[in-house]
Design goal:
Layout (H helix, E strand, L loop, with lengths): L1 H15 L24 E10 L4 E9 L10 E5 L8 H8 L3 E4 L2 E4 L9 E5 L9 E2 L7 H18 L8 E6 L2 H18 L5 E7 L5 H14 L5 H9 L3 H9 L5 H14 L27 H4 L9 H6 L2 H6 L29 H9 L4 E6 L7 H15 L3 E10 L2 E9 L3 E6 L6 H4 L1 H13 L9
Parallel strand pairs: 3-6, 3-8, 8-9, 9-10, 10-13
Antiparallel strand pairs: 1-2, 2-6, 2-7, 4-5, 11-12, 12-13
The structure holds 2-acetamido-2-deoxy-beta-D-glucopyranose (3 copies).
Length: 457
């Protein structure tokens, strides 16, 4: 039956000259509840590994630019976790063309496909609709290898994009995924130029866990979330990097568990640590730092009982329209609980990989939603500044405000015209979720390789 169906499609293709490329089969006719739009969407699977015994496939969602996709760059997006879905978070809750609302989808006015062709994929296998018939322990290195294979094969399906200007972006644990992937891409380019890599941007990324994790105490304290005395024990008796390193090794000391107990008690369960100023009910979708803030340690409850993205992506009609399957799982989850990832990899800094990429001439932007206490701006800013110093890059844009309209959108600094840092004012860990307009300004400047707007307009 399936075979006849395929045959029929081939025949139809050759007769009426509808798109007959490989990607044609992945074209989305219409997502249930979707408003009418003028751009194309594709989704489906790319096999990254296949033997007699096993099959590993990544699910992707590709959104072409709203206008003139042939002239626009290609942007790759990854969320973190490890184990969180880039399709569910990036694609349907941050900067994709639609957001879910009750019964269907509404247009996202600040969708990034106004500027670029956007590719979201679920990685590693075991996340979202991506699957592997063989369960194996993953880590940063293996994930990067799978991601590289995915991209090479995705370009075979979409050859018109293979030489396009390419930007890699992501947030949170993607501070590990992206530098590792970019490193493999530049290595691969040395043998044969395959990737037209033009820049990397990382939002609230984990780049060096000691600096990143230990900036949490001061952030919480300075926002009034924890008291002076708790701040003191959180910085002297047991700091967050020590606490987490004990936790990963299953050897949480009573000293550290006492400290985190105090921190949790004062924080309360009713503050979202991904945005300490936003009222609660950021959907569970946003709890993407599974490794950096495991539930067991943080003890924050999921305050949103209803999670519209989860409901939407679990609808059978939606899965059919997306060409998605559930393989080995009975439900699509925003954060995988079947992924077996080497959590100790979080302790290996990636900031030096960023340094090598900059030295190879690839522009890098690190940006921070400034209300996030999970990966606070202060840690990221220190790391970027330190890297610039180490690489001998002088300041080319001194620390200053930038504007979105007539309001300050945040602060920025640029080093050597190649390494940039920016904050997004009032933004969560997932910057485009709580500050879509400001995030779009950052996105546009990044693609153009321009500093953020200096004057208000
Ligand atoms: C965190 O604690 C560890 C272990 O006690 C210590 O070596 C390290 O210097 C501390 N880091 C910071 C930033 O306080
Ligand atoms: C999603 O969660 C359900 C139960 O909460 C579990 O049975 C299923 O295996 C999970 N799927 C993935 C991919 O994590
Ligand atoms: C950076 O600034 C220092 C001091 O002003 C100067 O000596 C050096 O040449 C500059 N480096 C670059 C790469 O411009």
């Amino acid at each position: 039956m399936a075979k006849t169906h395929l045959m029929l499609l081939f025949l139809l293709c050759s007769f009426i000259k509808i798109e007959c490329s490989l990607s044609g089969f992945d074209k989305i006719t219409k997502l249930p509840g979707q408003p009418k739009v003028g751009f194309q969407q594709y989704s489906g699977y790319i096999i990254v590994d296949k033997t007699n015994m096993k099959e590993k496939a990544f699910f992707y969602y590709f959104v072409e630019a709203e206008r003139d996709p042939a002239s626009k760059p290609l942007v790759l997006w990854l969320n973190g976790g490890p184990g969180c879905s880039s399709v569910g978070i990036g694609g349907f809750s941050e900067h994709g063309p639609f957001r879910t609302n009750g019964n269907g989808l509404v247009k996202n006015k600040c969708s990034w496909n106004s500027e670029a062709n956007m590719l979201y994929w679920e990685s590693p296998a075991g996340v979202g609709f991506s699957y592997s018939s063989e369960k194996s322990k993953m880590n940063d290195e293996l994930t990067a290898r799978d991601n590289l294979v995915f991209l090479k094969r995705w370009f075979m399906k979409f050859p018109q994009y293979s030489q396009r200007e390419l930007f890699l972006m992501g947030e949170s644990y993607a501070g590990h995924y992206i530098p590792h992937l970019a490193q493999l891409m530049t290595q691969s380019n040395k043998k044969q130029r395959v990737f037209n890599l033009k820049g990397i941007a990382l939002g609230n990324p984990v780049l060096d866990y000691v600096t990143d994790f230990n900036s949490r105490a001061e952030f919480l304290w300075s926002h009034g979330v924890i008291s002076d005395s708790t701040y003191n024990i959180f910085t002297s008796v047991c700091n967050y990097s020590r606490l987490m390193s004990e936790f990963y090794r299953d050897s949480l000391s009573s000293t550290c568990s006492g400290v985190i107990g105090e921190v949790n008690k004062e924080t309360s369960r009713f503050v979202d640590i991904y945005d300490v100023t936003l009222d609660i009910c950021i959907a569970s979708v946003f709890a993407q730092s599974k490794v950096i803030s495991p539930q067991q340690v943080i003890n924050n409850i999921d305050v949103c009982l209803e999670d519209e993205t989860v409901n939407y992506l679990n609808r059978k009609d939606v899965q059919k329209a997306l060409h998605a399957r559930l393989v080995g799982v009975d439900k699509w989850n925003v954060t995988s609980n079947i992924l077996d990832y080497d959590h100790l990899d979080v302790e290996k800094p990636t900031i030096s990989l960023i340094g090598s990429l900059v030295m190879e001439g690839i522009p890098v932007l690190v940006f921070s939603g400034d209300q996030d206490s999970v990966i606070p701006l202060t840690g990221s800013r220190t790391l970027v500044h330190g890297l610039a110093k180490q690489l001998g890059l002088n300041t080319t844009v001194p620390y200053r405000v930038w504007f979105q309209g007539q309001q300050v959108g945040g602060w920025t600094q640029v080093y050597g015209n190649i390494l940039s840092y920016a904050t997004i004012r009032g933004a969560a860990h997932e910057t485009p979720f709580s500050q879509p307009e400001r995030s779009l300004v950052v996105f546009k400047s990044f693609l153009k390789g321009m500093p953020l707007p200096e004057k208000f307009s």
